[in-house]
Amino acid sequence: MTARRDDPVEQQVIEALTRAGVEFDVLDCDPAFADTAAFCERYGIAPDVSANAIVVASKKEPKQFVTCVVLATTRLDVNGVVRKRMGVNKASFASPEDTMALTGMMIGGVTPFALPPGLPVWVDARVVRRERVVVGGGSRSMKVFVDSRVFELLDGFEVVEGLANEPPTTSPTLTQENPPS
Hints:
By secondary structure, the chain is an alpha+beta fold. The protein contains 6 helices and 10 strands; from the N terminus they run αβαβββαβαβαββαββ. A 5-stranded mixed β-sheet has the order 5-2-3-6-9. Strands 1-8-7 form a 3-stranded antiparallel β-sheet, covered by helices on one side.
């Protein structure tokens, strides 16, 4: 794919994916629907093939950052796996301001394919088990549907087992209308 885009970050994403030699499709996105749940609903994309790139920051100075890629159907284990791998006492999602300053990207468009050199990218193993995934394209106007092997091919990316957890399932509340059986 050699489509050109006006946004320089989008261009970097397309160039990085082209160099990686994997199949990908560019998906135009209305910026108002760039957040994962809204995007999936609007464009008919299953959440289990949609991946989020999330920048995580340490709480104490000097701040450390890492980008984590997880399926939309899972929850990033910030206080367990991520914090321990970073070697810090506390970590949390980076603020939108820190994310923009570090990556040049807005929340809802963050991609792992056009990050600053030296920023680690950890990818939950569930992501690479999918044949293809949708991930941000560098802006709120573009997503990419990409062969998930790309996460194992690019330098600086590390596949991490257990980086995210399945969300807890809720059991039905017992009421008079729903008594135990």
